[in-house]
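Can't paste images in this forum, so I'm doing it all in text. The chain is below; anyone willing to post the predicted structure tokens underneath?
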Amino acid sequence: MSAASAGGPLPRDGSVVVVGASLAGLRAAEELREGGFTGSLVMVGDEVHYPYDRPPLSKQVLAGTWPPERTLLAGRPRMEELGIDIRLGRRAEALDASARRVTLDDGTVLEADGVVVATGARPRRLGGVDSPDGVVVLRTLDDCERLHTAIIDAGHGCRVVVVGAGFIGSEVAATCVGLGCVVTVLEALPTPLAPALGELVGGALGALHLRHGVELRTGATVEAVRARDSGARDEVTLGDGQVLPADVVVVGIGVVPNTEWLEDSGLELADGVVCDAALFAADGVVCAGDLCRWTWHHLGEETSVRIEHWEVASQMGSVAARSLLAGRSHAEAFDPVPYFWSDQYGLRIQVLGRPGPNDEVAVVEGSLDAPDGRFVAVYGRRGRLSGALAVSRPRQLMAFRPLLAAGATFDEAVELLEVGR
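Text version of the structure:
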């Protein structure tokens, strides 16, 4: 039994398998080498692509302003520099957590002193809906290229129906408007983004679609998507019986953690992989990225959370590697100030912290109905600052980061920008 399996530090000349060849997995591998790990390092990825960046897919790559290769995070030279044995186009099918043994889809069995689980998440599908092949999701580089091709093939005035007015759906809608498409966004909720940002701010962000000529339908459910004869548009049938023509249908209704391969692993699964505060799911096994549900000490409470943000995934990969190196008994808790951004219609929406739908909200700069769409809002929960959101006000937003890190009161946050005026 290795020291890592007993909760001790990872042997510096031992072996590690990183399952997941995206941002979190790459950051973990880089941090292992930076931390002095000299042993065997294998990375497994189910896509055929080297690690690449996902945020540009719904924006620059979909718009055609970036070539796909510009999203590359680390190619063959970087893998060789890090001494990583990368297995692309291979899917992990099973993990024995106690033995730290990973089985791949080609029958290969990888045994290691430490395992980093970073298999991310996949898009939700429209449950119970008749969907033809023309219905697309956007998660991978291949998804993006397929969607871009469909829009270009349909030509100017392409009718795009986006199902879901969350951040991904909204970014796709904004990009499609820039490509000259006629866009309709369908949202099942009365107010877009309300579960994440509350009714007030969610309504303001939903209004951005209307200002840019997008038809936003809230309270809209999809009953079926049917492909018509060659040369004709698809038809999207709504719950109220209305039928919308569409050249392209994009579904953006959230993601599901990729945990099925872990069902017999011995790890605890609950809408992700359940981890402790230092990102350990078991001795010698750490998690990072969209599938990680960790114990977060936040606002004076111990909370189990899973956060699907680029920066959190990047930080998680690094912290998970440091935890593995230190060992379970000496690893430090992961305590981020979450940060997220979304580019829509020439505006940048940025969020710090973790706002809740029932939090108190105060607009501290601009207004929700400002003609230029710019404002700053802060969120409070039980008297503490829980989050801040800004639309194209980056300097003002970042002033709240130290307050969130220090556990400032909501009143202190409300007064912050007043002091600087």
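The radius of gyration is 22 Å. The chain has three domains: 4-122+256-326, 135-253, 347-419.
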